[in-house]
């Protein structure tokens, strides 16, 4: 009987064993190794030299880190926040009765940018915003340096990020709107509430948890931006990091043989994401109470 109980208890863990081995070898161990490496000066060969918190101190006095951080905040404010607002308006329009049978067509069309490959999206935007043969410059009859001038480059990245993000947040908001029963808004309408009053006093307050999830997801996602600007700008990327997001700081540090500093930059990113996640849990937990 004891052997049967032991076997019954052990079987689930045997199914978990392959995942645990992969997780330990390829996720947990590299993470812990990078944490330890952040306290060393290591160029990839030779012996690592213990420097304590010096890598972290150097980063906070490193102008490039603040440039990359500023770019990340710029992309968050001017790309993600307007995208969130526009996605919400689209979700309201699709959820409304006026959408009718066309709703099943609108949904995939709005979500289409999200499922497009990043490489394909970036290539299309390079064709649209190209300096000499770009579609926009051909229409305007001008040569606007969308992909070569840092002042224009950042805004071009903003347009690409906004276009790609609309579908994702549209789905989040549409899911949140479906949790609001139509009987609530209909009852308010019977009592004389207008559509705007319904939106302000019923829909927006009930959508607060969804807004918070979208906002925190946006904030975390902004710190992980890398593929879009690097593919879009390609050879025009400036070495002074005037348009580079935060992830480029880590990649460039590794390319320069500064593995300790790259690890420290990575763990600063982990700390920021952890704080944002805790804020989200705190706010949503407070709403549930």
Overview of the molecule:
The protein has helices spanning 2-37, 54-60, 63-95, 103-115, 118-129, 135-140, 150-178, 182-190, 195-206, 208-222, 227-233, 246-255, 259-288; strands spanning 40-41, 49-50. It is mostly helical and 289 residues long. The protein has a single domain (55-288), classed as MetI-like fold, CATH 1.10.3720. A two-stranded antiparallel ribbon has the order 1-2. The longest helix has 36 residues, at 2-37. The protein starts with a helix and ends with a helix. The model has no long low-confidence stretch (mean pLDDT 83).
Structural class: mainly alpha
Radius of gyration: 24 Å
Report the mean per-residue pLDDT as an integer. Answer: 83
What is the CATH C level class, in words?
Answer: Mainly Alpha
Largest sheet: 2 strands, antiparallel
- Counted by DSSP, the helix tally is 13
Helical fraction:
over 70%
Q: Overall 3D geometry?
A: globular
State which percent range the strand residues make up: under 5%
- List low-confidence stretches: none
Number of domains: 1
């Amino acid at each position: 009987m004891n052997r049967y109980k032991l076997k019954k208890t052990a079987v689930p863990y045997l199914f978990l064993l392959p995942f645990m081995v992969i997780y330990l070898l390829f996720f947990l161990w590299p993470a812990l190794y990078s944490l330890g490496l952040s306290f060393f000066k290591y160029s990839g060969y030779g012996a690592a030299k213990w420097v304590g918190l010096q890598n972290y101190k150097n980063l906070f006095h490193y102008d490039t880190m603040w440039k990359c951080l500023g770019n990340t905040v710029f992309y968050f404010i001017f790309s993600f926040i307007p995208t969130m607002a526009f996605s919400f308006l689209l979700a309201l329009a699709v959820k409304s009765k006026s959408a009718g049978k066309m709703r099943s067509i609108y949904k995939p069309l709005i979500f289409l940018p999200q499922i497009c490959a990043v490489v394909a999206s970036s290539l299309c935007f390079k064709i649209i915003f190209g300096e000499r043969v770009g579609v926009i410059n051909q229409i305007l009859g001008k040569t606007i340096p969308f992909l070569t001038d840092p002042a224009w480059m950042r805004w071009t990245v903003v347009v690409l990020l906004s276009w790609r993000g609309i579908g994702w947040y549209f789905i989040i908001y549409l899911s949140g709107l479906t949790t609001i029963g139509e009987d609530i808004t209909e009852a308010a309408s019977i009592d004389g509430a207008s559509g705007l009053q319904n939106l302000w006093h019923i829909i927006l307050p009930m959508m607060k948890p969804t807004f918070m999830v979208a906002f925190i997801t946006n904030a975390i996602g902004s710190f992980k931006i890398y593929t879009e600007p690097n593919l879009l700008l390609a050879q025009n990327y400036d070495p002074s990091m005037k348009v580079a997001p935060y992830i480029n700081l880590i990649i460039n540090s590794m390319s320069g043989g500064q593995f300790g500093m790259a690890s420290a930059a990575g763990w600063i990113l982990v700390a920021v994401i952890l704080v944002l996640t805790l804020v989200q849990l705190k706010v949503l937990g407070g709403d549930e109470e």
